[in-house]
């Protein structure tokens, strides 16, 4: 399943008293947030007039058209900015948009179901896949070629080879 609209940024809070916003950009280069085309809401119906003003503490500082004071900026916390997928560059063979991985079934090499990919995190040392099983138990797996040797987007699944550390934890539960 291909996602047609991708989240490329989210408002994390206000900056100052004149309506500027702090935005976490999910683009490869955060400064490219507005470079691909107009930012919209999830439906694509509302187009945001965005001007990038700078950067602070690893986040973009933007001015949103019509947002002129801190109260208006605070009210936008959590607002997500979307782009049409067609406006973004094609991924390379070994590259994926997070939205394409979220929702995939995670299975072992012998086909045993581990759960569903719920999120992807980057804690600084590389991406981690959050996989939750039917009981709601969550396990984080490093998103490396050794741990995730194959991804079948068309088939809606990826193969996970749980690291030894995960296997040891599993044995301790029994």
From TrEMBL:
Which keywords, in A-to-Z order, does the entry hold?
Answer: Chaperone, Cytoplasm, Ribosome biogenesis, rRNA processing
| GO CC annotations, alphabetized | cytoplasm; ribosome
For this protein, the parts annotated as crossing the membrane are none
Taxonomic superkingdom: Bacteria
Which Gene3D superfamilies does the entry mention?
PRC-barrel domain, RimM
Example GO biological process term? rRNA processing
**Chain's role:** An accessory protein needed during the final step in the assembly of 30S ribosomal subunit, possibly for assembly of the head region. Essential for efficient processing of 16S rRNA. May be needed both before and after RbfA during the maturation of 16S rRNA. It has affinity for free ribosomal 30S subunits but not for 70S ribosomes.
List the protein's name: Ribosome maturation factor RimM
Q: What organism does the record attribute this protein to?
A: Pacificispira spongiicola
Q: What is the lineage of its organism?
A: Bacteria, Pseudomonadati, Pseudomonadota, Alphaproteobacteria, Rhodospirillales
């Amino acid at each position: 399943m291909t996602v047609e609209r991708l989240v490329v940024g989210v408002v994390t809070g206000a900056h100052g008293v004149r309506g500027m916003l702090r935005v976490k950009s999910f683009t490869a280069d955060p400064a490219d947030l507005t470079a691909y085309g107009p930012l919209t809401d999830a439906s694509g119906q509302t187009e945001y007039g965005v001007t990038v003003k700078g950067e602070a503490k690893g986040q973009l500082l933007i001015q949103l058209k019509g947002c002129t004071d801190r109260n208006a900026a605070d009210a936008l916390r959590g607002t997500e900015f979307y782009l049409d997928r067609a406006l973004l560059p094609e991924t390379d063979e070994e590259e994926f948009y997070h939205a394409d991985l979220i929702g995939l079934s995670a299975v072992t090499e012998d086909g045993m179901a581990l759960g569903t990919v719920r999120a992807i995190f980057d804690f600084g040392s590389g991406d981690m896949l959050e996989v939750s099983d039917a009981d709601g138990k969550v396990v984080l797996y490093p998103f490396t070629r050794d741990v995730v040797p194959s991804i079948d987007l068309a088939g809606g699944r990826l193969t996970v080879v749980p690291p030894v550390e995960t296997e040891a934890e599993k044995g301790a539960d029994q």
